[in-house]
């Protein structure tokens, strides 16, 4: 048996479960055994995005002793589009050069 941890966080709270599983347990099996989906109905079981120690992984990855499974929430905004909007706003406000996008000279 090995000890692992399963974590799911929302902006206002986090759920962290410690659990003992078999040596050959996969991420998916551990999630099922933990029953975290019942405790956190916000988790979309059909579209799970997971990682082990902040590195994304597949559900069939075999766990090691001390691993921490992290269940990720879906992104609410496309990071590239959000960055593009911030850059456009900085150009409009004069904080960035309108041509290069770099810092505006003062």
Secondary structure elements and pairings:
Layout: E1 2-9, E2 14-21, H1 27-34, H2 36-39, E3 49-52, E4 55-57, E5 68-72, H3 79-92
Parallel strand pairs: 1-5
Antiparallel strand pairs: 1-2, 3-4, 3-5
Structure description:
The radius of gyration is 20 Å and the shape is elongated. With 106 residues, it is α+β, with helices and mostly antiparallel strands. It has 3 helices and 5 strands, in the order E-E-H-H-E-E-E-H. The chain has helices at residues 27-34, 36-39, 79-92; strands at residues 2-9, 14-21, 49-52, 55-57, 68-72. A 5-stranded mixed beta sheet has the order 2-1-5-3-4, covered by helices on one side. Strand 3 and strand 4 form a beta hairpin.
Determine the N-to-C terminus distance.
63 Å
- Tell me the strand percentage band: 25-35%
The low-confidence parts are none
Mean pLDDT: 86
Task: Describe the structure concisely.
It is built from three helices and five strands; from the N terminus they run E-E-H-H-E-E-E-H.
Task: Write a concise keyword list for the protein shown above.
single chain; 106 residues; alpha+beta; five-stranded mixed beta sheet; 5 strands; 26% strand
